[in-house]
């Protein structure tokens, strides 16, 4: 509560569209999950966030160096956060020029299968061996939320007299379906279901490389599955649904056994 009040005061004095230092950050559901995973995996150096919007998650992540990428951010970095940078450009262009490896990459950009898949593949190519990738918006709330175009989703809801609901996840879920079809034994993933907005985490076994994931991936499967096909009976088993607590337990056991 005190941090939230202090943060509000700083925003009022300096401007609302500013990244706050960590000790003033109120945080989000996503930053709480990310910080827990960073601690369990022993990661704390480099963090990348694709799609930062208002920066509330970015500013609350406990990493030494943080980079946010967004073509139209609703916030800017400041002198208060010297190790936090915001690159105002599309993620494809960022990855084209990037030469840095990251411990943790959070993908929350354009909510389409095609872009989310490109962001995932680029992230795999820019990750340290022990690093992890968190993909947002992998479980749509309904058939309208799963439409790849945001305006189409809103129009369809309005047509069905559901206009008060503004949730939109796009067809990012198809990325998880695709990855599940690769059958790469050392590639692990889990969809955290007890969040307000479920997310899917990806990581690999020690002794393997992310390059092996790319070499073993097949891009020609399951790209056109519909919301009804995937979620007619709830979250499917091939999404590997887990609670946040069970995911952390699993990561902790794997870390201790290395």
Descriptive overview:
This protein has helices spanning 2-14, 29-41, 56-60, 91-97, 113-124, 150-159, 173-182, 210-216, 227-231, 244-256, and strands at residues 46-50, 65-69, 84-87, 102-107, 127-136, 187-192, 199-204, 241-242. The protein is α/β, with parallel strands linked by helices. Strands 3-2-1-4-5-7-6-8 form an eight-stranded mixed β-sheet, sandwiched between helices. The radius of gyration is 18 Å and the shape is globular.
Provide a quick synopsis of the model.
This protein has helices at residues 2-14, 29-41, 56-60, 91-97, 113-124, 150-159, 173-182, 210-216, 227-231, 244-256; strands spanning 46-50, 65-69, 84-87, 102-107, 127-136, 187-192, 199-204, 241-242. With 258 residues, it is α/β, with parallel strands linked by helices.
Radius of gyration: 18 Å
How many domains in all?
Answer: 1
Query: What percent of residues are in strands?
Result: 15-25%
Largest sheet: 8 strands, mixed
Q: Structural class, please?
A: alpha/beta
The SSE string, one letter per element, is HHEHEEHEHEHHEEHHEH
Indicate the low-confidence ranges by residue numbers: none
In CATH terms, what is the architecture?
3-Layer(aba) Sandwich
How many distinct helices?
10
> Terminal Cα separation, in Å?
39 Å
Mean pLDDT: 90
Q: Find the CATH topology.
A: Rossmann fold
Find the count of extended strands (DSSP E, 2+ residues).
8
- What is the quaternary state of this protein? single chain
